[in-house]
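User: Could you walk me through two proteins back to back? I'd like the raw sequence and the structure tokens for each, with a short line separating them so I can tell where one ends and the next begins.

Assistant: Of course. Protein one, sequence then structure:
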Amino acid sequence: MSGHAWLEHAAPYALGALDENERASFEAHLTTCDVCSAEVRELRNVAGLLATAAPDVVPPPRLRERVLADARAVRPSSTAPTHASPVTTLPTREPRDHRGASRPTSGRGALVPWLAAAAAVAFAAYFGQQYRGERHERLAAQQALAAARIAIDSTTTAVARRDSVIASLIAPDVQTVTVSGSGPSPSARYFLDRRAGRIVIAANSLPPAASGRTYQLWGIQTGRPPVSLGTFNADSSGRALTTLPIPAGLRIAVTAVTDEPSGGSAQPTTTPFLAATWKSE
């Protein structure tokens, strides 16, 4: 095969779409054909502009294989010319104009489907990357906002709890009792605010309750069974500060702490400690 019929290989060659044998045959032809060489240079310039038409993106795996498969579906590449004997090889008829003169064949018609397929894939990859990036940023912003709301709610709750404790400590009619266990046992200070219906306990040197256990504070009215005021625990340093409500109508005469199963008990199951006696109203 000779002459400008080789031009139909120029477009797939410039796009790197020829297989190894086709590429080798066409490159051998390029060494002797200025027309095909000029066409390849022009097509490579166009392909270079196409490659820089959009911002750089990381191509997905097997992109080249998909591009080539789509392009071959539009216009299959012809097989590479082979050297055959003069007896079996027929000369290629070149197109002629109305005067019968030979007319050169252009490879630009073959370039159009390749460029269209490459451009479609490039734009799809670019906009897909943009969408994924924007979606990731949106999800990150939503997660950050949710975390900020949780932090604000937690801070608001902590501030309200602190204000409640402060109010109980400074109220003018609050009763205060300090109690200690025997030996190197824990100590605690109680602040009883009967008007607000709450009691604050601040304990020191109180070991954290064992796994599956908790501390429970009881309010005892003379002549009646103990009433649970709630459960609490100490931190790793042995300190505890908690505010617990007092049921309406309960006239506390004694408070005491017991060690109970996690979740608390209906009635004390262990010996009370940190017991305090209160003045009558």
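----
Protein two, same layout:
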Amino acid sequence: MKRILLFVLTNIAVMVVVGIVTSLFGVGRYTGTNTGQLMIFSLIVGFSGSIISLLLSKTMAKMSMGVHIIDQPRNADEAWIVDIVRKFADKAGIGMPDVGIYEGEPNAFATGAFKNSALVAVSTGLLRGMTREEVEAVIGHEVAHVANGDMVTMALIQGVMNTFVVFASRVIGSLVDGFLRRGSDSSGPGIGYYVTTIVLDILFGFLAGIVVAWFSRQREFRADRGAAQFMGQPRSMINALARLGGLHADGADMPKNLAAMGIAGSIGKLFATHPPMEERIAALKAYQG
């Protein structure tokens, strides 16, 4: 809750500064818009989707991934997974997450709006393709995501980016529309506003995606270090990453909103939610030294 409040207050403070600057330069006069109202509208639109997605993340994960929640372990493997999650949750000082298994390629993810009621799930492919020590390290990585509050952080960063996309595209759209219709007596936004806003929503949305992906990659490095701390050494996590790289687990079977919290992500560059395996292994080796 503190993290949410901090990010919201930070975003509001930044938007207030933007409002002061736009007022000083008379942007509202040139655009014919009320920048104060536009800022409030941008905040609501920017954050509503991210917050709703975060609050529904556990439910959507269970439905979209077909996650079987382990209420009562059916076998020794399930009992072991629950014990590992409990051990790491105790070390991290967080509430016991729900623990689940789903059918899929080698991967795992954590999700949930709150640290003390999160979900940690591993795939059957991960359990079949790794040693127990490597699986343990992967679980440590996901519990570290929960302990670090990464799901909330990423949702709020997305909200901040959405807010600026909405605000900037509409301000610029109003400026373009005013320029195209200079001397005209017609009121209300024209075609220039709508076309410019749509184009800039798409363009700025791509740029915002690059920023969000960069933050996601930094959270992965931190979660890798968290796994190494839980294990007492980085070797197990290094081995797990090396094996995942060999298994070509790229998160392609996971929904976009869950891929950022998975152990293996996309192989793209600017839009990749995860760093390359080689960089993550190198960072852990440097951490080891």
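The chain has a mean pLDDT of 83.

Let me know if you want the two compared in more detail.
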